[in-house]
Structure formats: structure tokens, C-alpha cells
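Example 4.3 (complexes with small molecules)
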Amino acid sequence: MSMFTEDDLIPISALQHFAFCERQWGLIHLEGLWAENRLTVEGKQLHERADSDETQVRGDVRIARGQRIRSLVHGLVGRADIVEFHKDTSPSAVEQNGIELNGLEGRWNPIPIEYKRGRVKFKPIDEIQLCAQALCLEEMLETAIDEGFLFYGKTRRRHPVTFSPTLRQLTTDCIENIRHATILGKTPSASYQKECDNCSLYDLCMPKAIEQSQSVREYLNKSVRDLPSPDDGMIS
Ligand code: SF4
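Answer. The structure with iron/sulfur cluster bound is encoded below.
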């Protein structure tokens, strides 16, 4: 199996940007642009506690915050807001002895939990990010993870996410598309969509103006193409 090197790792946040809007990914990860708006500031505040590097114990659940994660198989690096380790006390788990956690024996099933400020989205953007975390944890802990949770600040509810073959495929396709787009090195063009109204990069991106100028450019290119050529004998 081929493995990526440390230098080739893609930040997990890039998957979320790419799945939201390929141009947003290009502006941030190719051109190094960034801008805050109310939504990104609120999102940061929600993540502050989650990224605090604390570990808590609540009975048979250990809660690790801001866990650094990576996958050399998929070429990913990032942090998981929260990973809950649930002690599996079933006879088979005790027999297998499973993962050892910080010197504690037994089998501990990891469950990644990602904090989000808004609510469940129409596109599986947050699900892809969470699945990427699961891929990292599975590799690091040599275990299988079936499910994680997205915690939405707006509804203050946990939304379960199953790491199905379809979601895993979407996630690995996203990683592959990012690698391909990185090699091309060109920021995708703008196309105004309703998500643009919530995008912190709106003023830098100018989706309506750029889209319009693209149309003008296309019109001009088409007009030039439609001009009769000298070979038609119409232009001297
Ligand atoms: S403003 Fe719209 S097109 Fe531009 S980066 Fe944001 S979401 Fe993408």
C-alpha cells in the first residue's frame, strides 16, 4: 500500500472548503486568502473549548479534546474537536483486549464529534469532514469506526453520522479531487449560488461580478470565433 509523506498531507479543513465551494477552496488553499464574517467568528468561539487539549473522564467515557490526527494512507492531517472513547465491556471486547488508552487496558471505542455553529446542511459538507477524521482515527488506532456525531450550535443537538460506504467514497473522492485541483494550481471560476450570501470570502471573490465578466469574455470570444475568416473571402 502506498503511503503519503508528511509533506503531502492535506488539511482536513480543506475538504470542508472544497465540498462547500471549489472556488472557496482555491482562494484559501491556493491563493492564501482568508476573511472573517459573523458566522466564522461564531464558529471559532464554538471551537475554542473543543480545541483546548483537555481530557476528561466521565465514568466509562474518556473525552479527548483537540486531538491531533493524521492518515498517511489517505494523506490527511488535522484536529478532531472531540473524540469520545467509550469503554466496551462486552465479553468479546475484554477477551480481545482491544485498544489500550493511556495505559488503561480494555477496549475503547472511539467516536469523533465535530462542533458546528449552524444547523444540518443540504450538502454533506460536515459529514465529509467528520468521515475524514474517522479515517485518520481508524488508521491511528487500528480499529473500525461506524459512527460519529455533528453537534450543531443552533439546535444544540447531536446529529448522528454513519460512516457508510457511500460517505467513505464521497470523502475519498473529495481528497482525490483536491489533489488533482492542487496539481492544476488554478482557482476554479466563480458561479453565484445561494451559499455565497453566507461566505466570508464574498467580497474577495465577487461571484456576481466575476460571473458577469466571464459571460462578457465568453461573448467576446464567441463573437471573435464567429467572425468570417480571411479564407472566406469576405475580409480583405
Ligand atoms: S462567494 Fe460564492 S463562489 Fe465565491 S468563494 Fe464564496 S461560495 Fe464560492
